[in-house]
Amino acid sequence: MENLTNCYEGPQPAVCRECLCARGAAPGSRPGVELFPQGRPAAQPRGSGGLDAQDPAPQPLTPSGGEVWLLSGAAPDHRTAGAMPVGGLLPLFSSPAGGSLSGSLGGGLGSGGRKGSGPAALRLTEKFVLLLVFSAFITLCFGAIFFLPDSSKLLSGVLFHSSPALQPAADHKPGPGARAEDAAEGRARRREEGAPGDPAAAVEDNLARIRENHERALREAKETLQKLPEEIQRDILLEKEKVAQDQLRDKAPFRGLPPVDFVPPIGVENREPADAAIREKRAKIKEMMKHAWNNYKGYAWGLNELKPISKEGHSSSLFGNIKGATIVDALDTLFIMEMKNEFEEAKSWIEENLDFNVNAEISVFEVNIRFVGGLLSAYYLSGEEIFRKKAVELGIKLLPAFHTPSGIPWALLNMKSGIGRNWPWASGGSSILAEFGTLHLEFMHLSHLSGNPIFAEKVMNIRTVLNKLEKPQGLYPNYLNPNSGQWGQHHVSVGGLGDSFYEYLLKAWLMSGKTDLEAKKMYFDAVQAIETHLIRKSSSGLTYIAEWKGGLLEHKMGHLTCFAGGMFALGADGAPEGLAQHYLELGAEIARTCHESYNRTFMKLGPEAFRFDGGVEAIATRQNEKYYILRPEVIETYMYMWRLTHDPKYRKWAWEAVEALESHCRVNGGYSGLRDVYLLHESYDDVQQSFFLAETLKYLYLIFSDDDLLPLEHWIFNTEAHLLPILPTDKKEVELKEE
Ligand code: DMJ
Questions:
Q1: Ligand 1 site, residue 500, Cβ cutoff 6 A
Q2: What is the number of other CB atoms lying within 10 angstroms of the CB of residue 154?
Q3: 368 lines ligand 1 (CB under 6 A)
Q4: More confident residue, 735 or 438
Q5: Backbone angles phi, psi at 95, to 5 degrees
Q6: 608 counts as catalytic
Q7: β 420-421/431-432 pair status
């Protein structure tokens, strides 16, 4: 409707407003006010429509200027009075010879007409006959206008050139809609066949369009009327049916798991490091694992986590009332540390007690990374069927989270009812990027182990949705509304709310045997945008990753963000040409900054978030950012940097962390987080997080092991440090993709 801009905005009949404004009336013109009350001005420029006596050829009915001309003469009062000025019809009757009919009729029939050479020569009878013919024609036109059902469409279709933008949208529905499409096709064909500018074809074309418009309008009106109330009811039923079918489809294939050939894991035999000092350090880390495990077993067995000060169980709402988070999270660490008895105890507990039929709401993300990831990892290391069975069973329970209009899953899911919702604080009911973007690795493996593509389909659809969306500055906002499939607030973070989404893009590519080129592209495009818009250097030269809020930077980096050092280094190998060294160095710089955040505290353990503003660098300035909850991210980055560079400083820094953990977090009853790492005395938070066993201790153990324990070429760590092997690839498919 762009033609209406600047048009008279006062009250007016719709048709008139549409015609006058949309079809070429001057800006500010009013309905009913003739543009050219005396007929068309003689000085109308050529090409702007209409004819004058010098026009060498008859004009078709379509030029826009001609449209205005006629309407201007056909102001409402004239029509009702039945005295349309002939000048108003001039374009219809202009003659090739240059003498218009108005001209031949003389000035008496239209003062706006050009004067012809022989009006006086006509006799009265001739005049009368002409008048008769003329009025017959007028009657015909009026008949056409007023007896066709939709005169407004006629006016806009025949007398005025229709702008495609103002046409009703094409009907995409099957059935009656096809008629309009057929007709349109026919018209196009005719247009192609006929000579360009053929007036007869143009008239036919316009009439056909009017008919179609009319039919379509009728059909639409009918459909709308008929929709109430049965159609609406039927729509609801159809929608319900679709959800029920989805649910059935999700469940149907899992009556039994297909047999899978277990592939013996690569790089799990545990050779002692040759260097005695390293051996000792590694043994110390294993001892830490024993301390954490034994206390959990002693005081909180079967519950989710341990309260090491209170010496009792700790339950987090993240797991609803699913139990045993520490057991499942610790499985693979127990396995690689060769704590065989403990692994067997854990397995027995899982066989007998791990139950997902709970009537409670869980975090889809947390349950996926810890439980699904932990079970998958345990299966791939041990080949024990119980882990595969439990992983797939849990995967099925998570599927209803994807029943949203966009397929972007809910953050929270009631395991019994299958009803999902989002965190109430998340930007207008949005799902969180780091949550729905951190399902890919586990779900690809669930499809692999269950033989059912549904899991893979669900996560691939997330990609499809993301790829369709416009990204502000190439960045991925942390919030996406699952109903609309549109971004929520434009906040971007490589730490909390965003972090593992980027991690999973890179690892999806690696886990696919480097065949998932879409993931690779998404990863490197995202990293490029992150470098441009989020990565900054402090005045003393520390590289940090800030947070982005609608274009403004918050110069703060979270402990969670520190994982990115390892990610950049891990991705370096596949970086666009010439950038491999750059990404390795970027990883090293982030590792250094995060080490500084540890080094600048009293406890030598890093705060939850640290800032680069107000005169500080890598220091937490807000009380609620000074805690440390046994998180792994800094040590995770040391692990990748050690493996990829063998720079001894990473072992040195890792050992500093071990000492700090032993000095400040170790208590009689296990390991506790700290409320403030800048204090001289420990203030415990009294929680031994399950990820301390799954991640922090595992990464430490690997730093002090040889590289052939879990080689990076064969294993991918999920975001909870659970091990997933690189998926076997179909060679043919790879070749095709490469081509
Ligand atoms: C872990 O559960 C995972 O590493 C997750 O990706 C982020 N938060 C914790 C550890 O800090």
A1: yes
A2: 21
A3: no
A4: 438
A5: -105, 150
A6: yes
A7: unpaired
pLDDT in tens, 197-222: 455 665 676 676 667 667 766 766 67
Cis preceding linkage at 56, omega within 30:
no
Instruction: Return the SS3 of 317.
Output: helix
Exactly one of 18, 342, 608, 633 is catalytic; name it: 608
How far is the C-alpha of 142 from the C-alpha of 165, rounded, in Å?
27
Q: What mean pLDDT comes out for the span 291-308?
A: 98
Cβ(216) to ligand 1 under 6 A?
Answer: no
Angle of CA points 10, 15, 16, to nearest 5° = 50
Per-residue model confidence (pLDDT) at position 492: 98
Selection from 515, 518, 415, 514 nearest residue 459 by Cα: 518
Q: How far apart are CA 373 and CA 284, in angstroms?
A: 26
The pick from 435, 631, 640, 685 for probing ligand 1's pocket by mutation, whose C-beta has the most ligand atoms within 8 angstroms, reads: 631
pLDDT tens column, 448-494 = 999 999 999 999 999 999 999 999 999 999 999 999 999 999 999 99
| pTM metric for this prediction | 0.69
Burial 1-30 (b: 16+ CB within 10 A, else e): eeeeeebbeeebeeebbbbbbbbbbeeebe
Bond preceding residue 11 cis, omega within 30 of 0: no
Q: What is the pLDDT of residue 506?
A: 98
The answer to whether 121 touches 108, Cβ cutoff 8 Å, is no
Residue 423, amino acid: W
